[in-house]
Amino acid sequence: MTVETLIPVAYLIAAITFILGLKGLSSPTTAVQGNRIAATGMLIAVIATFFAADVRGGVPLILAGVAVGGIAGFVGARMVKMTAMPQMVALFNGAGGGAAALVSILEYARVLEGGRLPELGATIATLLGLIIGAVSFSGSAIAFGKLQGIITPKAFKYAGQQFVTGGIAAAVVLLSVFLIAASIPGGTPPVDSAITPMLLIAAIALLALVFGVALVMPIGGADMPVVISLLNAYTGLAVAMAGFTLNNQLLIVAGTLVGASGTILTRLMSKAMNRSLGNVLFGAFGAATTAGAEAATAGDDGRSIRSIGPEDAAILLSYAQNVIVVPGYGLAVAQAQHSVRELADLLESKGISVKYAIHPVAGRMPGHMNVLLAEANVPYDKLFDMDQINPEFQRADVALVIGANDVTNPAARSNPGSPIYGMPILDVDKAQNIIVIKRSMKPGFAGIDNDLYLDPKTAMLFGDAKDAVGKVVQELKKAA
Amino acid sequence: MTGEAIVAAYVFILAIFVGFEVVSKVPSTLHTPLMSGANAIHGIVIVGAMLVASAIPGPIGVVLGFLAVVLGTANVVGGFVVTDRMLAMFKQRPARKRE
Question: Which tens digit of pLDDT belongs to each residue from B54-88?
């Protein structure tokens, strides 16, 4: 028995650790351990691979690559602030997609070097790995740019966009069909002999990269939870396809697990916005805004906005029994999570109950608010899902909305003309009093006015989330 | 279909079921770590990158192979470290002092 025969055993162990790692995530108490088990499995798989016959010649190259990638990954992961987490996740996701695409290309080229055209199955797997991986790579790069603010986070749209995007997709499919047709046994390549398979592969790779850009550019910042989940699923699938190409079961298992996880998250996120995936990707939000604006003006029957200062907010809060905090992306931008916890601690010391209501798409990635509040040491058993917390709003004396907008808009329930009509929302308007901390009256992502702000029960506290919460804390301390 | 391909197909299908089964039990509180943890797991592509890194002779092959390993490693290392950082914050802490 040689060392090489043990490699599949090492891969089997790694596959098991990945499943255990994901299983560990079913509870916060076992999650850290699960992640470390999976990381150990990964290490075992990588070390075992060094003994593979295919690898031996390339060890220096691999070690150099591991050093560069490892340092970049480690430093990036250590330095990044918790508020910048969505873009970091996007970046690492894109890296995986890019690697999967390159692996597909290299394996295809290796078989070609051997003097034959890869078989039909291998060709299809290669193309899928290449295309999905490349789309994930460039799409994640754009998502990173948008989240980081390098590229405008707004939806980038132009006339005939869907035709351009569709055209690129059609070109990718057409070129792929050429390659597939050429690999059918006995079939004659329908392409001129001057167009080599590698040239086709290169063209497909480039077009897929462009398609990834075209796919993500028109998607606005608030839809990012869906996009990031989807790109996550894409990379998983691309890796699974690379596994088919290399006939490597470990890649198939790991990639498929991730594909499943990304798919579940994508579905959850789309559902939380009451929109189909197609609508998010090729969405009609821009077009629908006019209808929303009209409806809002129609509803504007002389009600006005009530603005209050931090001292009033402090008084309102200190006389409450039950307070529900509703965090949104504004909290992340202002990095207000620590101030919010300070406020909650103060209130709790007065015997006031404080809970947090988390909308599934609050923030820029699934579970974004949970991570931020966890960073500020808010115990996770105080965070409640939409379904759990909604019945409690009517018993809440104060709902404190911090940097959240569209997810609290009652128009989603009542106004069929609104672009967000039908989207499940937090029933903030059912609370006895509502305090909204917001920078200005600027409408949220959907570009529509929020009826909640015109509610007589609502008081607006204008300002940066961190500043405003900090001032309320000061006032509460003064009163104490 | 060859024997190898059919085994691969079995593995793929079973992994889909396992994936959906395991992941659907993850609470929404842990959705970010789930995504980032899954992200780290697809970093397994590094194994593929190692296997094909020196498959193609010549400068283009070397550059592509090197890039594949770099991207794969960044994915693995970054993914696991970020997830570990996030999860560390979810640890149950001793009850905070109340005034």
Answer: 888 889 999 999 999 999 999 999 999 999 998 98
Are residues A94 and A141 in contact, defined by beta-carbon separation less than 8 angstroms?
yes
Task: Of A459, A428, A412, give the one whose Cα is nearest residue A304.
Answer: A459
Neighboring chain B residues of A248 at a CB cutoff of 8 Å: 47-48, 51
- AA letter at A325: V
Q: Which of A406, A429, A451, A455 is labelled catalytic?
A: A406
What are the boundaries of each domain within chain B?
Answer: 29-89
CA atoms within 13 A on the CB side of A229: 29
Q: Give me the residue spans of the domains in chain A.
A: 1-79, 88-281, 304-479
Tokens read off for A372: 């931020």
**Residue numbers in B near A27 (CB within 8 A):** 27
Distance of CA A205 to the CA centre of its chain: 24
pTM: 0.86
CATH number of this structure's domain A304-479: 3.40.50.1220
Q: Is A8 on the interface with B (CB under 8 A)?
A: no
Q: Identify the three-state secondary structure at position A433.
A: strand
CB contact burial B48-85 (16+ within 10 A = b; e otherwise): bbbbbbbbbeeeebeebbbbbbbbbbbbbbbbbbbbbb
Low-confidence ranges of chain A (pLDDT < 70): 1, 185-195, 283-303, 442-447, 480
Q: Give A 84-113 residues with CB within 8 A of chain B.
A: 85, 88-89, 91-93, 95-96, 98-100, 102-103, 105-107, 109-110, 113
Rg of chain A over all Cα atoms, to the nearest angstrom: 26
Query: Would you tell me how many other CB atoms lie within 10 Å of the CB of residue A396?
Result: 25
